[in-house]
Amino acid sequence: MTASNATSDNGGPPPVRLAFDRRTWKKVAHLLADFPLSLLAFVYVVVTVVVGVGLSVTVVGLPLLALALAGARGIGRGERARARALLGVEVDEPSPLGRPRDGGPVLWVWSRLKDPVAWRTVLYSFVRLPWGVVTFTVTLVGLIVLWPVLPFLAHAMAGADRAMVRGLLSPSDELERRIAKLESDRGVVVDTAAADLRRIERDLHDGAQARLVALAMGLGLAKEKLAEDPQAAARMVDEAHGEVKLALQELRDLARGIHPAVLTDRGLDAALSAVASRCAVPVTVEVDLDRRPAAAIEGIAYFTVSELLQNVAKHARASRASVDVWRSQDRLMLLVRDDGRGGADPAAGSGLAGLAERLGAVDGILAVDSPAGGPTTVTAELPWRG
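^ that's the sequence the OP posted. Answer follows.
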């Protein structure tokens, strides 16, 4: 609203706007649904959980209680989804309980019985019934009688609903949120490792293995010709010697892609200098580390810089690039710059997105600053863990 239309035509205050907007109606819908849904949840809890507790002295009691608590998790999941859709509550999902790898049904039952998420949902189901009666009644009366003040009533009661969802149905603490994050990151690590294994298998099959098979066949033919045509056999042995050299070079390149020997022996400075020397773009490398980080972090840093320099060579159209590595407290910092055309965007589904996911799996961070026209600066942080 501009200053020219902020008042009415006669100079008085602006007309009062109706408060029954879309958000208000979503709150009303949520409050009206409180009672029937809380009644169903309450009945479920009473029939299953209370009966399971009562029968816990028998053989079937504890398994029944474990199943009831597993179902209670589903109630909590549905309530969180409803609150997100109708109240706009941003609440994280608790970490999945998972399936025990060993221990059989006894361990499965025990893991469900001590599940804090399920027990908080049980408490939520008990508390919600009387509150659901209140919200349903007040909202229904407001729709019929208290129409002018219904938006204010809906806002106040919806605020209480939000607090209840956040207090009882959200992850209990930062540790649980961290567990959920690690569950997600573990999937990224597994997928990345599987992709690397497929790449190594493909490189071995299509490269060194095929060359060695051809080498064995060539040596076999040379052996057959050795008596009748020594000169031809000598040429075939010479060709085989060349194939051996190529196979060894391919194996060395493959080993460098897994974990280069220079990184193990001499650290990041020498390893990144070797990577820079093979880059199609001139690269300067500055490494300022008083000691080496953990071997795993060192390897991740090496492959991060390698991939970033590959991107520079393939896509940036740069004339030069630089790599800086240093330590900042308990973090290993990587900075890769180039004077190319810019426009690199991890959100566009490029290799940068996958690189950011891999760094995130070890508590790392990738930040990209790449305006159109360049230059591009990529900063990566990794935990030191030395």
